[in-house]
Write a structure and sequence with these properties.
- The structure is a single chain.
- The protein has helices spanning about 5-15, 70-100, 130-160, 165-175, 175-185; strands at about 25-30, 30-35, 40-45, 45-50, 60.
- The protein is α+β, with helices and mostly antiparallel strands.
- Strand 4 (about 45-50) and strand 5 (about 60) form a beta hairpin.
């Protein structure tokens, strides 16, 4: 059985791709702290805090209930994905500020030529083109979400079938143990 500092160093090393020896883990009261490549992990018995520093906005935090390597690694990966996503969205929103001459996308109606439409800027009667554009955006987002959910489900099932425990796998996937059992076909409703 490994110690908490070893598990923190291993999880950071595997997720970031740096040698374990290059990660320094220090003690601060009951917490073991490590930082590498903009990722901070503070761990103690039965829990951890993972913080990923973002470029534009507030930092991203994850709070895994376990200090097992696979749970820590999954939390670090999820926090990194969320941080990248936040940075991309904020950068995209700031793009019109940097280039005020930029034209809106091709589906925009004449009322959107000047600036990006916000909830506060809408009139009592929004344009039908804008409503249609928003519907299309929602459909695309739902399609992407469904695809990602399918990959998450397949990865969780594969992890359990490869020998990982159900509880840490469910925690890493962000679902309940019952949901994981449903995905595996091990659970049915009692009648």
């Amino acid at each position: 059985m490994s110690t908490i500092p070893e598990r923190v160093a291993i999880a950071l090393s595997e997720e970031i791709g740096v040698p374990v020896e290059s990660i320094t883990v220090t003690r601060s009261g009951a917490w073991w702290d490590a930082e590498c490549d903009g990722i901070c992990v503070a761990a103690r018995r039965r829990g951890a805090i993972v913080e990923v520093i973002t470029e534009y906005g507030p930092n991203v935090f994850r709070f895994p209930d376990s200090t097992q390597v696979e749970v820590l690694r999954a939390s670090i990966a999820e926090a990194r994905r969320l941080a990248r996503s936040c940075d991309c969205q904020i950068a995209a929103r700031r793009a019109p500020e940097r280039n005020p001459q930029a034209r809106p996308h091709r589906g925009a109606g004449p009322d959107l030529e000047g600036e990006v439409m916000s909830v506060e800027a809408t009139t009592e009667r929004p344009s039908l083109l804008e409503l249609d554009r928003l519907r299309c955006e929602v459909e695309v987002a739902q399609k992407v979400l469904t695809e990602v959910e399918g990959r998450r489900r397949a990865a969780a099932v594969a992890a359990v079938r490869a020998g990982n425990g159900k509880t840490p796998t469910a925690a890493a996937a962000g679902v309940t143990r019952q949901t994981l059992d449903k995905w595996l076909g091990d659970w049915t409703r009692k009648r």
